[in-house]
Automatic annotation (TrEMBL):
It comes from the Bacteria. Pfam families: ABC_tran. Residues 4-245 form the ABC transporter domain. The lineage of its organism: Bacteria, Bacillati, Bacillota, Clostridia, Peptostreptococcales. Part of the ABC transporter complex PstSACB involved in phosphate import. Responsible for energy coupling to the transport system. One of its GO terms (biological process) is phosphate ion transmembrane transport. This is Phosphate ABC transporter, ATPase subunit. It is found in: Cell inner membrane. Keywords: ATP-binding, Cell membrane, Membrane, Nucleotide-binding, Phosphate transport, Translocase, Transport. It is a peripheral membrane protein. GO terms for cellular component: plasma membrane. SUPFAM superfamilies: P-loop containing nucleoside triphosphate hydrolases. One of its GO terms (molecular function) is phosphate transmembrane transporter activity.
Amino acid sequence: MQKICVEGLNLYYDDFQALKNITFNIEEKKVTALIGPSGCGKSTFLRTLNRMNDLIDGVKIVGEVKLEEQDIYHKDVDVVSLRRRIGMVFQKPNPFPKSIYENVAYGPKRHGIKNKKQLDEMVEKSLRKAALWDEVKDRLNKSALGLSGGQQQRLCIARALAMEPEVLLMDEPTSALDPIATAKIEELITELKKEYTIVIVTHSMQQAARISDETAFFLMGEVIEVDHTQKIFTIPRDKRTEDYVTGRFG
Ligand SMILES: Nc1ncnc2c1ncn2[C@@H]1O[C@H](COP(=O)(O)OP(=O)(O)OP(=O)(O)O)[C@@H](O)[C@H]1O
């Protein structure tokens, strides 16, 4: 099943074309990795999927992104509810300078949930899903900034999950973390894909190979090849993909 269909997508930062005629589908409840050398447009592409680029001056987008048949760039689309359906986790963990509890409860509260019991339940459920509950259940009212980097990143994942999204976009979520914290997040991603569609930008080909089902290789704003991860890493169709995954460039 396809969750997101991208067709003929072009993106310009003023006169610079950062994405060139991108067409591919993102499968539901799978992990799709976006790989490619620095500056090839991976983050830009990721941000087009929940309209984060709308916030940047001078951006022009041509083409289509459909979330289950709905064109997300249609003028009637409510961007706030779109971002609720398609959540995002960033490279550097960015918890609010508030308590652990408040970080997770923040989104649901903003969406009008006031009932304490309901909020408590949402916070626990989201922290459990983010594999953080056991580590923080006795310190929910302590500052999130006191957590380790890896815990902070899982808290940011819990914060995204509290919005009950369908899709999670992750922009190099482990690049600021040590190998143990990275392994925990990778394990978590593998668990989360049972319920969510995940798109992840990664600089680590080992990571893409370990956790993703599908991989898209980007080069200078184009998608050169997209296929099952195993195929991309063993028998890619394009010479440029092969050169990249075997470390001959990039
Ligand atoms: N806000 C912006 N304004 C102008 N140009 C931008 C902006 N953001 C990105 N770019 C340019 O668009 C191109 C793609 O950038 P993007 O960050 O999407 O690449 P990337 O593949 O994610 O890179 P990296 O792996 O280094 O994070 C680059 O040439 C970059 O300089």
